[in-house]
Amino acid sequence: MKVTVENKKGLNKDLKVFVDKKTMSNYMDEKYEEIKGTVNLKGFRPGKVPKEILKRQFGKAVFGEVLDKVIKETSTKALEENKIKPAGQPKLDLKTYGEDKELEYIISVTELPKVEIKSIENIKFNEYKVKIDEKETDKRINEIAKNQPNFKESPQDSKAKEGDLVIFDYKATVDDKPFKGDEGKNTQLTLGKDLFLKGFDKQLIGVKKGDEKLVEAILPENFPEKDLVNKKAKFNCKITLIKHPEKVVIDDEFAKNLGAKNLKDLKSLISKQINDEYKNSLDRLSKNQILKEIEKFKVNEIPENLIGEEVKILSQGMKEEDAKKSKKNFEEVAKKRIKVGLILNEFGEQNKISVTEQELQAEVQKQIRMMPGQEKMVMDFYQKNKSALASLRGTVYEEKIISAIKEKAKGSLKEVTKDEAEKILKESQKTENNVLNEKKDSNNKKVEAKKSPTKKTSVKTAKSKPKTKKVSKK
Questions:
Q1: Over the stretch 95-113, which tens digit does the pLDDT of each residue have?
Q2: Which domains are delineated in the chain?
Q3: Around Cβ 330, how many Cβ atoms within 10 Å?
């Protein structure tokens, strides 16, 4: 094989690949030997069919397979020998080919630009550690206890009051007629929460164990029997038990009921839970700082084909007219994304970062846990959708690269309280919103500047804006 590089134009170049006749003949002979043992032709013993007979019968098919194989092997080798990393699929142009002929073809390729990653070590970013005050942990545990009241049976003559748990059986009618779902046994209501039917539980205030109480309520919009929606129903309720809430004692037994070993272990788990809630959001801030710094890196030329592909992704779902108006803005966004991607990928390759199958499956399980009740659907989605699984692998790969960059770059560790963490996240959200508003104002001003009294102008602002996420304070 002989390879010559021609027509160098920036990142675009042509590679002429030449494979001599003898080499092609050797490939063909190997293929004929391979199929000889599998072909059955009348008059010939298995494995004894002459090559000339095989050539007449299967020549075109054999040559097609050989040509595909040779092109695949030689094109890959040609790119590797010339240390070219293609930006997209190279184009092939066959010049000379055929049985008993040499092979000559042109590979037209756009290569990925060389990127410099040494500056990554000079990136400065903030890394946060949230210090959870013991009072915050106790507050969270008290909230849990408050939402898990402990009820104790009330005395026989005790009247139900707000906050009590009333247990009752009922039989209901509409216009004195029964209906589907008109009976209930051991129904439990905490008075004051209004969780059954609007105004229902207030009518049970003052009842005692053994009482019968007629309660009237309007059936809601989502009632299964559509012809009864918004009609008044009468519920004949038989009170079987009344329980009053007792203050939950926060002790080792309480902790065990929540799955902890003891109260000390529960406090440790809750403290970690609060820390993780803020740490995840603060880690995203650190990551965004790193990515913003990488955006400032210089890359001399970005492949046009990659920009075009990224613009297509950004304008997906848009009307053609709107996409054209936003093209320039999308191209700028695309260039930044591609540049960051190139640098991250180069860093990953140089540091031999990869995603193992175990890591990928762990991420799939993580996605499954985030969708309780829909586990099978999520699992099926990733099993049947290879592109989604590839995207997930890309996410894990990027996170591993960011973690590696943090180890090499100049991180400034800041220990903050929960309140300080909230303030940092709010300020970050505010800054992002201000940037979006400034971009919007800037675009509007450009449009106004282009307007003339006699010419009608079209608004050339981006329809798609970077999404901002509201900080969760769970």
A1: 999 888 999 999 999 999 9
A2: 2-110 (3.30.70.1050), 149-246 (3.10.50.40)
A3: 22
HEC assignment per residue over the chain: CEEEEEEEECCEEEEEEEECHHHHHHHHHHHHHHHHCCCCCCCCCCCCCCHHHHHHHHHHHHHHHHHHHHHHHHHHHHHHHCCCCECCCCEEEEEECCCCCCEEEEEEEEECCCCCCHHHHHCEEEEEEEECCHHHHHHHHHHHHHCCCEEEECCCCCCCCCCCEEEEEEEEEECCECCCCCEEEEEEEECCCCCCCCCCHHHHCCCCCCCEEEEEEECCCCCCCHHHCCCEEEEEEEEEEEEEEECCCCCHHHHHHCCCCCHHHHHHHHHHHHHHHHHHHHHHHHHHHHHHHHHCCCCCCCCHHHHHHHHHHHCCCCCHHHHHHHHHHHHHHHHHHHHHHHHHHHHHHHCCCCCCHHHHHHHHHHHHHCCCCCHHHHHHHHHHCHHHHHHHHHHHHHHHHHHHHHHHCEEEEEEEEHHHHHHHHHHHHHHHHHHHHHHHHHHHHHHHHHCCCCCCCCCCCCCCCCCCCCCCCC
pTM score of the predicted model: 0.63
Tens digits of per-residue pLDDT, 48-59?
677 777 777 777
Residue 71: closest CA among 44, 107, 47, 38: 107
Q: b or e along 191-230 (b: 16 or more beta carbons within 10 Å of the residue's beta carbon)?
A: beeeebbeebbebbeebebebebebebebeeebeeeebee
In this structure, what are the phi and psi dihedrals at residue 303, rounded to the nearest 5 degrees? -55, 130
CA dihedral (38, 44, 49, 54) in degrees, to 10, reads: -80
Average pLDDT over residues 430-438: 67
Chain-centre distance for alpha carbon 428:
22
> For the segment 390-425, what is each residue's pLDDT rounded down to a tens digit?
999 999 999 999 999 999 999 999 988 888 988 999
| Unique residue bearing structure tokens 């009170």 | 239
CA distance 188 to 106: 79
